[in-house]
Amino acid sequence: MAxxxxxxxxxxxxxxxxxxxxxxxxxxxxxxxxxxTAVRTATARTPVRTAAVIPAAGRGVRLGPxxxxxxxxLNGTPMLIHAVxxxxxxxxxxxxxxxxxxxxxxxxxxxxxxxxLADRTDVLVVPGGDTRQESVRLGLAxxxxxxTAVLVHDAxxxxxxxxxxxxxxxxxxxxxxxxxxxxPVTDTVKQVEPRPAGEPEPVVGTPERAxxxxxxxxxxxxxxxxxxxxxxxxxxxxxxTDDAGMVERLxxxxxxxxxxxxAFKVTRPLDLVLAEAVLARRRANDGF
Length: 288
Ligand code: C5P
Fold this sequence. Notes:
By secondary structure, the chain is α/β, with parallel strands linked by helices. The protein has one domain (50-192, 207-286): Spore Coat Polysaccharide Biosynthesis Protein SpsA, Chain A (Alpha-Beta Complex), CATH 3.90.550. Helix content is 36%, strand content 18%. Strands 1, 4, 5, 6, 7, 10, 11 and 12 form an eight-stranded mixed β-sheet that branches. It has a two-stranded antiparallel sheet with strand order 2-3. Strands 8-9 form a two-stranded antiparallel sheet. Strand 2 (73-74) and strand 3 form a beta hairpin. Helix 8 (223-235) packs across helix 9. The chain is globular, with a radius of gyration of 20 Å. The chain starts with 6 loop residues before the first helix and ends with a helix. Cytidine-5'-monophosphate (C5P) binds at residues 55-58, 69-70, 99, 128-132, 135, 154-156, 267.
């Protein structure tokens, strides 16, 4: 994945951090402005424009009572704002679509207006659905026609580092239809026959830990592939806990790139403590 197979692919990699069309070799070498227009016209291909869709419409009941999870504060700033910034800080991302709770889209819009981003990033807010899958589908439906690559990033992973975002984008731009950041698992995992809470659960298997990975977001996709997955898998009525899982069901290959421990999902109260500790460490280390 990381090794380009062609000069063209190398060019795509080199341009992963910018939204301009990939340069041809002669453009890169000469850098001469008059020649540039002519060369681009001769070899023009559709520029990759990348958007990030952030599903943020969940209630977050496992965090306990209070505001919807995405609006909970981390060191005084709502989790959603951290997540939006984490996408916008990548130079590859030119549009962020926030999928808000259906009854809270106006509130989310106002909140985003309080925390403006750099001019190069646009932000749209759309109302979400009853499931994460439905919320992502509604976010995809709001994308302009010229978006060709899409990141889907959970608001519940507010601290993903920009290097992880860029690694996902670079792999998509190098030609992978679906890319997922992932880490090895540290716990041994058991497969069980689920029982109601409190009842002992029979173990039915122990997958080999070395072959397991815990997946994170942002997951990156060729837009057409993800749109097809949302059309077809939703029609089949099958649930999926992540977008890459839906693409897998189409039979399209999904590849992994290294994830990051700071891209963890804020799910339970202890995760809030950890997230604030990470922010405090960042501030101490680099004045973030
Ligand atoms: O519930 P879970 O933590 O798996 O949710 C993952 C992400 O999906 C969260 O960012 C949450 O806000 C979002 N979500 C959504 N619409 C729903 C349910 C969850 O956007 N109906």
